[in-house]
Design a protein that fits this description.
Elements (H helix, E strand, L loop, with lengths): L3 E2 L7 E8 L2 E5 L4 E4 L8 E2 L4 E5 L2 H37 L4 H33 L2 E3 L4 E6 L6 E2 L4 E7 L3 E8 L11 E6 L7 E8 L9 E8 L10 E5 L2 H7 L4 E4 L4 E3 L2 E7 L5 E5 L1 E6 L2 E6 L28
Antiparallel strand pairs: 1-16, 2-11, 2-15, 3-10, 4-6, 4-9, 5-8, 6-7, 8-10, 11-14, 12-13, 12-15, 13-14, 16-21, 17-18, 18-19, 20-21
Helix pairs in contact: 1-2
Subcellular location: Cell envelope
Keywords: Transport
Protein name: Efflux RND transporter periplasmic adaptor subunit
Length: about 325
């Protein structure tokens, strides 16, 4: 289908998502086999609860080695200290040369330094051992499990995502010219999908002081009350100031909701090239009207896209003759 210009509206809406302010994605900080047999999405967890473990045998061995190293360093330090104390009178009387006694003192000082080094190594080994336990930082719910029992994890591997029961935020992107309408503390009605007749009364928490370099828009955060009808992940809209609405509306185009897909965490559409080759293109979405979505950046009027995307469609594929409309 050919993308068409969105009709101008008197009240342009900015789209956003409800998020938990205390959402945390836990990643592995040690390597090994993951054990998380009882973990499941939707599971309620407590702060400090162990959600999963990573095979600790290597960490345990390193910890025992660090303890042994500290014991050896302390024994050497005690021996060196004994020599210094014992030979002090001999050095004072001249029975022991100054150079020999100074060598004993240097040996003792080096032994003290090795004890400090061994203590630091033991502390690091204890930290590495603690990394084998994946602990929830909040009271909340497991919303995503990224690994299975028996998977191999490396440092940086996402394991679990948990959301707390604290403050909810509605986050959306607004252009610079609209920021004056979102002053911290000001009330903002949020229209959530499925309950547009019951706007949620939120208050502006603030504006993230850095624009997205691709869209030149700023993220606005609105605090929402905790109630049974508002949950993280919900889609919603807020009205932009009217002056901005008229300036912003002509830049948007509309596409069918069925044309928009998520690939690798990016929202986009498949653009049909002149050679009928498909290219996945990231887009930023605006308001929704029925089964049509406004695209505020990433797509221009007159371009051709797939109106409905099959899950098997891949970037770079060639469209069969007559498959698009």
């Amino acid at each position: 289908m050919v993308v068409s210009q969105a009709a101008a509206v008197s009240g342009t809406m900015a789209s956003g998502t409800v998020e938990a302010d205390d959402r945390a994605q836990l990643v592995a900080r040690a390597s090994g086999t993951v054990r998380a047999a009882s973990l499941h999405e939707g599971q309620r967890v407590r702060r400090g609860q162990i959600l999963a473990t990573i095979d600790a045998r290597q960490a345990d061995a390193a910890l025992e080695g660090a303890r042994a190293g500290l014991a050896a360093a302390m024994a050497e330090q005690r021996d060196a200290h004994g020599d210094v104390v014992r030979d002090a009178p001999l050095a004072q009387s001249g029975a022991l040369s100054g150079d020999a006694y100074r060598a004993e003192q240097l040996r003792h000082e080096a032994a003290v330094a090795r004890v400090a080094q061994a203590q630091a190594a033991l502390a690091a080994a204890r930290v590495d051992r603690a990394y084998t336990s994946i602990i929830s930082p909040v009271d909340g719910v497991v919303v995503a499990r990224h690994i299975r029992d028996g998977d191999m994890a490396m440092p940086g591997t996402p394991l679990v995502t948990v959301e707390g029961r604290g403050q909810l935020l509605f986050r959306f992107a607004a252009p610079q010219s609209a920021l004056s309408g979102f002053v911290p503390g000001n009330p903002v009605p949020v229209l959530l999908d499925g309950r547009e007749d019951r706007p949620v009364s939120g208050r502006v928490r603030g504006v993230v002081p850095s624009a997205d370099p691709a869209t030149r828009r700023f993220t606005v955060e609105v605090l929402l009350p905790r109630d049974s009808g508002v949950m993280p992940g919900m889609f919603g809209r807020v009205a932009l100031p009217s002056a901005e609405a008229q300036a912003d509306a002509p830049r948007a185009v509309r596409v069918p909701a069925a044309a928009v897909v998520d690939r690798g965490g990016l929202t986009g559409v498949f653009v049909v090239g002149k050679d009928r080759r498909l290219t996945f293109r990231w887009v930023r979405l605006g308001d929704r009207a029925g089964d049509q979505l406004a695209v505020t950046s990433g797509l221009s009027a007159g371009e051709r896209i797939l109106a409905r995307v099959d899950p098997a469609v891949r970037d770079g594929a060639r469209l069969a003759q007559g498959a698009a409309r």
